Recover the amino acids of this structure.
């Protein structure tokens, strides 16, 4: 009796799939591994080719040196830079979730004249890179440099976030809103009491992506910040690594401290983030 070729190939195919995915995952993880291992090694061993990946002579001396060097009035305080970045990210994320979700709700669920034209304009805004408007914005707000609000406000309204919410909201059955309307709920109550609780994956994915973009924001702070007291962490890292001679172990340790809040936010919202991205990808 001959065996079914499909049954004999399935375990082999599954093994090959896992093997290929494991190799790809390792390749993508290499920069992170190098960053973490290098941050724990003496600086003179960081740039020694492939041996830089080997976990030898590990210690937290680089982290201690970074925190000690950024702990005075002359160099600034590390936790102040971290606090500025966290405050800016919090304002942009919470403000963006509120503004962009309401805009997407109006464009996707409410019926009004010019709705499609406005949504088309939002889609076109996604094609405009921030670098093309950075200089005009700089001249518009030049008299407000070194202030925290001007570092956050231009990034609260985001066309891509509106598109993400719009895509998710359109997957919600209209019958749910019709039932709420019969019960006497208006658009505001329907949005906050029904749509928002049902859209946790969309809110989580938008929150993570917005936090990631804002956390790594560099061009706008470079243009608008000269006062160290309002300097966000990525800008401070560029100042730190420009010191001569460069200490690569401490620079990599600074990089790990910079990435750590992003990993914490991602791990906290991971489950909803995957659901939100999958829903947008399948139904978008």
């Amino acid at each position: 009796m001959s065996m079914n070729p499909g049954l004999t190939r399935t375990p082999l195919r599954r093994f090959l799939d896992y093997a290929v995915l494991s190799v790809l995952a390792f390749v993508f993880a290499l920069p992170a591994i190098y960053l973490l291992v290098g941050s724990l090694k003496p600086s003179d061993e960081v740039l020694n080719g492939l041996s830089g990946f080997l976990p030898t002579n590990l210690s937290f001396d680089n982290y201690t040196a970074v925190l000690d060097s950024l702990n005075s009035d002359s160099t600034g305080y590390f936790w102040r830079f971290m606090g500025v970045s966290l405050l800016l990210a919090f304002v942009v994320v919470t403000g963006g979730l509120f503004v962009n979700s309401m805009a997407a709700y109006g464009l996707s669920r409410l019926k009004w004249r010019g709705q499609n034209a406005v949504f088309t304009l939002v889609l076109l805004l996604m094609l405009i890179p921030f670098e093309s408007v950075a200089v005009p914005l700089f001249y518009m707000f030049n008299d407000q440099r070194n202030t925290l609000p001007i570092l956050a406000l231009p990034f609260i309204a985001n066309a891509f976030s509106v598109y993400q919410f719009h895509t998710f909201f359109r997957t919600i059955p209209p019958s749910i809103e019709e039932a709420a309307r019969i019960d006497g709920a208006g658009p505001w109550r329907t949005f906050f009491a029904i749509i928002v609780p049902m859209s946790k994956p969309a809110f989580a994915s938008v929150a993570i992506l917005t936090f990631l973009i804002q956390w790594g924001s560099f061009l706008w702070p470079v243009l608008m910040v000269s006062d160290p007291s309002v300097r966000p962490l990525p800008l401070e890292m560029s100042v730190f690594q420009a010191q001569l001679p460069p200490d690569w172990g401490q620079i990599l340790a600074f990089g790990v401290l910079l990435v750590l809040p992003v990993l914490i936010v991602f791990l906290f919202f991971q489950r909803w983030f995957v659901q939100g991205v999958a829903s947008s990808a399948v139904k978008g």
